């Protein structure tokens, strides 16, 4: 893992939260998109070298909807940039971590992603991210 790629925050209303974070950072989101496979709409903000991803559920069965129902708004995950997501998944499995999706899938912001179960990471959902080459 090379660096923290972004911090994901689950929100009930993306428009309201976009306005809040725009005031906080003094700049609008640089990217918004929907990831249908995950049932989520996202907005990305930059703050210096750091990125924040806001996530709103688009259906009641999505992981974000379930998270919001159980825990309310707040930090959902920490994402780490990796050079080779397939080898990193293998390495972490060999170390005993529970990988929620053994095959990387397309995520937001032009990334391949995989997640580690929070039961094995002190209650924090960890996302692995690899930039998709154009």
Automatic annotation (TrEMBL):
CDD domains (UniProt xref): MMCE (cd07249)
A Gene Ontology BP annotation from the UniProt entry: L-methylmalonyl-CoA metabolic process
GO molecular function: metal ion binding; methylmalonyl-CoA epimerase activity
EC number: 5.1.99.1
Gene3D superfamilies to which the protein is assigned, alphabetical: 2,3-Dihydroxybiphenyl 1,2-Dioxygenase, domain 1
Keyword Isomerase appears in the UniProt entry: yes
Enzyme kind, highest EC tier: isomerase
InterPro entries in the record: Glyas_Bleomycin-R_OHBP_Dase, MeMalonyl-CoA_epimerase, MMCE/EMCE_epimerase, VOC_core
Record carries keyword Metal-binding: yes
Keywords from the UniProt entry: Isomerase, Metal-binding
Residue ranges of every copy of the VOC domain listed in the record: 3-131
UniProt family annotation: Belongs to the methylmalonyl-CoA epimerase family.
Entry protein name: Methylmalonyl-CoA epimerase
Name of the gene: mce
């Amino acid at each position: 893992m090379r660096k923290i790629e972004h911090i994901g925050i689950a929100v009930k209303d993306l428009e309201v939260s976009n306005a809040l974070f725009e005031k906080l950072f003094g700049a609008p989101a640089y990217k918004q998109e929907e990831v249908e496979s995950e049932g989520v709409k996202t907005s990305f903000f930059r703050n210096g070298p750091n990125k924040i991803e806001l996530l709103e559920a688009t259906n009641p069965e999505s992981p974000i909807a379930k998270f919001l129902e159980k825990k309310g708004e707040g930090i959902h995950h920490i994402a780490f940039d990796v050079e080779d997501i397939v080898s990193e998944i293998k390495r972490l499995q060999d170390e005993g971590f529970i990988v929620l999706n053994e095959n990387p899938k397309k995520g937001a912001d032009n990334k391949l992603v995989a997640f580690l179960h929070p039961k094995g990471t002190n209650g924090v959902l960890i996302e692995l991210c690899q930039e998709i080459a154009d």
